[in-house]
Structure formats: C-alpha cells, structure tokens
Design brief:
Blueprint lengths: L2 H15 L3 H19 L9 H24 L3 H15 L8 H15 L7 H12 L5 H14 L6
Helix pairs in contact: 1-2, 2-3, 2-4, 3-4, 5-6, 5-7, 6-7
C-alpha cells in the first residue's frame, strides 16, 4: 500500500477518535475517491503515491471550484466549508511552486528545447508538466507557458 494512502487512513482514524467532524468527513471523501480510482477500469489495482496525489489534486480543485460557485451564489457558509476541506487535502500534497520557481522551470524547458511561438505550446506543456509533477495547478502552468512562448520570437523553419 502506498505511504500516502496509509497516512490518509491513519489520519482518518485520529480524526474519528478526536471527533473532528470536518476532518473525518473530508478524509472519508478522499479515501472514497482513491478507492473509486483503484476500482475504475478493467481490473482493480493498488494506486502508487503519485496516483493518489493526482486524485487528491483533483479533489482539491473540485473544492476550490465549488467554493467559488457557492461564493458567487451568496452561500458563504458552504463556500467556507469547501475551502476548509480543500485546505485539509492540500496538506497531503507536495509544496506548491511559487510563480518565480515556476517561471524559472518554464524558461529552462523552453531554452533547452529551443521552443518559441504559440505552435510550441503542446510540446512545452508536456515537458513542463513532467518537470513540475503535481507541484503547480495545470491552468496556472498553461497560462504562464502561453505568456512565455508569446514573448519569445517564433522559431525559424
């Protein structure tokens, strides 16, 4: 079993013993999402730590989007709960890169591969995502890659 999944299970037990309702329900939801991912597809399998992180990242994104929707609808209490759930799950993910670190990685990848112009977006995104490996939101990476490629002159054919 993956270490991250073990940590989730142990923290769930601790939260249940402490009668922490928010943490308990959030960790139960996270464990259910992991279990759903394990049984999805043709055959059941054990997820690696990287795959569990992907599931948790997806769940954090869902919480952020739900919090924004609730806030826009004037439902502050539900928005606050979604944000709190997201914060609990973020603790299980690797430290997120700040903009300066992310721009440095993007610039390095673009320079190493000699990429320029908007046509190189797909190649650049694939390379940057492999370097970033879950330490930055995909939409944020995409926006920064797009601006960095737009500011560089197109490659000569």
């Amino acid at each position: 079993m993956s270490e991250l999944k073990d940590r989730l299970r142990a923290d769930l037990t601790t939260a249940m013993k402490a009668r922490d309702a928010l943490r308990t329900s959030t960790l139960r939801m996270a464990m259910a999402a992991v279990k759903d991912e394990e049984v999805a597809g043709r055959s059941a399998r054990e997820l690696s730590d990287a795959e569990v992180q992907k599931v948790l990242t997806r769940e954090v994104r869902k919480r952020r989007e739900a919090a924004e929707a609730f806030a826009a609808a004037g439902r502050a209490e539900q928005a606050a709960r979604e944000r709190d759930e997201g914060e609990i799950l973020v603790a299980y993910l690797p430290q997120q890169l700040d903009d300066d670190e992310l721009v440095a990685i993007i610039d390095k990848v673009i320079a190493e591969r000699g990429l320029a112009g908007p046509k190189a977006m797909g190649i650049a995104m694939k390379a940057v995502q492999s370097e970033v490996a879950g330490r930055a939101d995909g939409a944020r990476v995409s926006a920064l890659v797009r601006t960095r490629l737009a500011s560089s002159p197109p490659a000569q054919a």
